[in-house]
User: Fold beta-lactamase from Halioglobus japonicus.
Amino acid sequence: MEVSAIAPGIYRHVSYGRLPNIGYYPSNGLVLVHDASAYIIDTPWQVADTRKLAQWIADQGWTLKASISTHYHDDRASGIAWLNAQGVDTWASAQTNELLASQGDALAKHTFSGEGQWLWSEQAYAWYPGGGHTADNIVVWLPQAKVLMGGCLVRAMQTQSMGNTRDAVMSEWGDSALRVLDRFEDAQFVVPGHGDVGGPELLMHTADLAEAVNREIVDDE
Assistant:
């Protein structure tokens, strides 16, 4: 696992999961720091790396207060059970908790429903734009630094595919990305679930990729 600063008080953590026929594959998450309190946006892929990240936070002299997961897959939510056991406030949308429950996975302690939710003294805003990579994917806006955690709704510029579409809502994905672009058009940094950090152009790139896939689906029909 690697941690690096991308903006004042905002750190990207990169962890790895093993995928069939691919090998180890990197996954992005964030740590937000405010007044010596730390908040994790998407836990690392492996539980062991969530423990390492929590230790790194403690080593900086910060107190880990809470986390939020942007959807229910392991690369976003595998650390929830361990964080719950440490007394950390875990957050997810009500839809994400329902999907975690359907798999028998640990649930976040706190949920929200509806379109959006301010968190942690309005340091972060969780927003649901519609389906995409999954039915429950949300984004998290960090207004002080103008950083948007797009999660797996957002594709990196270096990729020309939609990645894992097993649980995707392809009919909504492109429109969801454009809604995020419209809502957070002043974002300076956009963090995809996997790959390099970019700007708002990642959202248009995602919408273009989704449109191409949907055209292929129509043509095949």
The CA atoms of residues 135 and 169 lie 6 Å apart. The chain has a mean pLDDT of 96.
